[in-house]
Amino acid sequence: MNDIERAVEQFRTLLEEQLARTQRMEAGVAPRDFARQEQIAIGVAPGDGIGPIIVREARRVLEALLGDEIASGRIVLRDIPGLTLENRLALGKSVPEESLAAIKACDVLLKGPTTTPKGGSMESANVTLRRELDLYANVRPVAVPEEGIDWIFFRENTEGEYVLGSRGVEIPDRLCMDFKVTTRPGTRRIARAAFEYAKNNGKTRVAIVTKANIMKKTDGSFSAICHEVAEEYPGIEAEDWYIDIMTANLVNPAIRNRFQVFLLPNLYGDIITDEAAQIQGGVGTAGSANTGDRYAMFEAIHGSAPRLIEEGLGEYASPESILRACVLLLRHIARPDVANRLERALDSCALRVTGDPTGATCRAYADAILQLLA
Ligand code: IPM
Ligand code: MG
Predict the structure, then answer these.
(1) Has this prediction a pTM greater than 0.85?
(2) Helix/strand/coil percent split, the chain, to 5
(3) Separation in Å, CA 299 to CA 1, 57, 172, 254, 290
(4) Is the CB of 127 under 6 A from ligand 1?
(5) Could you read off the pLDDT of 198-227 as tens digits, one per residue?
(6) How many angstroms separate the CA atoms of 95 and 84, rounded?
(7) What average pLDDT is seen over the chain?
């Protein structure tokens, strides 16, 4: 077989797999009803780098907040084994089977950052988990109250540039091609999540952000399908924006606080949510929810910060981002009062963590939060 035939064969397989995925999405699964569920299992995976340090503190805060329900057995915190870089490298698996099975036995997952090895073919554990658990909505709130900024990003989390990210085709030494995938059911479900959020939270505008002038097929249909869904939400205005000008808008104080809900394909959502988090005070300050109909995973939006560990500064890592993720987790499992208490404590905590001894330690920050909760 020559190079072209091989590439065409590979493309055929990808197309068939993706078509099968659209069928699975169309079949759907029944969502959980946490308010009625007798027991809720929260998996806790520490991850790599600063992960075990920040997750240790997040666990302590959750244990304090949910003390009664943990004591009565209504909520269990369960350690997820094996999601460390060493173990993943030893097994050659981005998410070992044992870890995945343990995660699937839980309702939701609190996950510390996991390191993705550079080079090689190992996929990011995040990407594997999002795909395996079908976590299609990546929801990231960002707020700067003194500026009137109250944004929430609905990033499509299972398609776009990520779904085949490690499966591009290559004609050796000549050319490489990666793929970007937009599907109709995949776009409809993220659009619905964004518009439902807008409807239930008194928001009047949703910004659909693409580069549909250039990525005509994929972004073009993403935008068109989002507008179709928007028609079912008469009180809410659907606006079209291009990603380039939107990145400029976010640093334009004259207009940025008019945006409310953002709806975007995967890669643009990845990039712009780091920008947004920086506007709020840094990537250490923002939490991230990855939700699907059956499972959900909550994490910090930053990585495992190996540099902090190498420099012996791990204990100065900020747990704010993972604690913000806990707020999202608590809301997701229908514990809004507890979530609001934690959010108020985070909003009012005056202690600053800077990543070095000029600031508080991770533990001291969590202690301050526990004191505010007492
Ligand atoms: C994020 C991260 C991940 C992503 C990485 C760790 C794969 O940057 O959650 O935004 O690109 O989605
Ligand atoms: Mg990112």
Answers:
(1) yes
(2) 45, 15, 35
(3) 44, 13, 38, 31, 8
(4) yes
(5) 999 999 999 999 999 999 999 999 999 999
(6) 9
(7) 96
